[in-house]
């Protein structure tokens, strides 16, 4: 009999700590580190979030699993912003409703999961804000107002204009600086 998914997930994480290991719809997904373009975009997003997060005493983590519930998937966003004392499921997993913002930079292999699968899992877990940067589409999507199985609001901005992050951020980001 096969080991439960959670057990296989932990084993793969331990065997490959240099990779991003996620579970999605009953499958284990292992992603390599991003390309230089992916990481450059990520750095620029991080630069825009860093000062406001530090001012508020928050932390930004680049490689932490988000716990979405006992029977739910496990995702590792590119960036996770947490308050001073987030709630943990395990030492490698923070509860989704204990985050302040999750950020993903879409890559060619993650487009469907990032655009469709993850928002449908983050909302029921109480993730307040999910920011999705898609270089191929040259758009930024902000999912906010989690309401059960879906987010109540989805804001789409072009990659050259402002994007407002609602509470607790109350911050306008200049997405043009990300490219």
From TrEMBL:
Residues 15-172 form the Putative restriction endonuclease domain. CDD domains: DUF820-like. It comes from the Bacteria. Keywords: Endonuclease, Hydrolase, Nuclease. One of its GO terms (molecular function) is endonuclease activity. The keyword Hydrolase applies. PANTHER family: SLL1072 PROTEIN, SLR1083 PROTEIN. This is Uma2 family endonuclease. It comes from Nonomuraea rubra.
């Amino acid at each position: 009999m096969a080991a439960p998914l959670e057990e296989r997930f932990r084993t793969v994480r331990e065997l490959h700590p240099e990779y991003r290991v996620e579970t999605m719809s009953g499958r284990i997904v292992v992603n390599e580190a991003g390309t230089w373009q992916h990481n450059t975009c990520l750095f620029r997003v991080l630069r825009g979030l860093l000062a406001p997060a530090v001012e508020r005493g928050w932390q930004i983590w680049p490689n932490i699993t988000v716990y979405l519930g006992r029977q739910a998937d496990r995702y590792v966003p590119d960036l996770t912003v947490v308050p001073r004392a987030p709630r943990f499921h395990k030492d490698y997993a923070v509860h989704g409703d204990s985050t302040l913002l999750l950020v993903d930079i879409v890559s060619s292999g993650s487009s469907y999961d990032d655009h469709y699968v993850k928002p449908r899992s983050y909302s029921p877990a109480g993730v307040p804000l999910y920011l999705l940067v898609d270089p191929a589409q040259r758009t930024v999507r902000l999912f906010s107002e989690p309401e059960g199985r879906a987010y109540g609001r989805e804001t789409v901005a072009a990659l050259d204009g402002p994007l407002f992050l609602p509470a607790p951020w109350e911050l306008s980001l200049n997405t043009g600086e990300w490219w």
